[in-house]
Amino acid sequence: MEAALRAHTCLWLALAWVPLLVPNGLVYGGAEPCRAAGRPGELTWAVHLAVPEGSSEQELDRQAEALAEAAGLANVGRIGELRGHYLFSYRPRGPVEPGLEDVQQLAEAVFAHHDSVRWHAEQRLLKRCKRSLHFNDPKFPQQWHLSNRKSPGMDINVTGVWERNVTGQGVTVVVVDDGVEHTIKDIQPNYSPEGSYDLNSNDPDPMPHPDEENGNHHGTRCAGEIAAVSNNSFCAVGVAYGSRIAGIRVLDGPLTDSMEAIAFNKHYQINDIYSCSWGPDDDGKTVDGPHQLGK
Whole-prediction pTM value? Predict the structure, then answer.
């Protein structure tokens, strides 16, 4: 698995970080392909008639019928509950019919010169997109932990809050680890240099220093799980893809209580959440935790 995962090629996300979903952002992940709503090729007009005071619905209906007939159209009926608003449609009545341009010209002329017409508009097909989730990131279908299509329900149930525009926007998460390769296409747009620092080299750039053993990719993968950019046609999607992501490099050298303490509150004025997916040796016999300063 380690050999297959190359952070500079693709952030292969395996787990998600649920606490990042702070409900104060407004971003939607995307939309399904747009479709035109309506009946193609059908000529229809919306017409708003003046409504004389005290007039009944029957009188308005009769007025609409007469106007539609004068325009060579059929009265489809009132538009919903909008009083005085009617929908007129052109319906061929025989084998010999005028051209569509002639129909349009006649209708427009009648409406323009009729005293009772307050407003009219030929109806056009509108493009409307469903506000459902659609990502063009090629690895997203394999991120079963975010959206499990083979076994529905076997995931962290995050798509529902995405649909409510909760994506982490307005929140900065800092990964305290072995560094963050912030130039990667899935991280760079969300990268926060203001919240980042390298405590090992004592400079503001948390770029990992690759070693022969593992390449120091752990922090980069964690950053991708958290905030990988959505809909950039690259790799995958972060669980809080609207959030900003920073890095504090601290695990690539000797670690002391004071260094842990600095890491836990470095740039706290900017960073809202500190992600620390590391700790003492997990060997079944070591019991340790933050010391006095870290606490």
Answer: 0.62
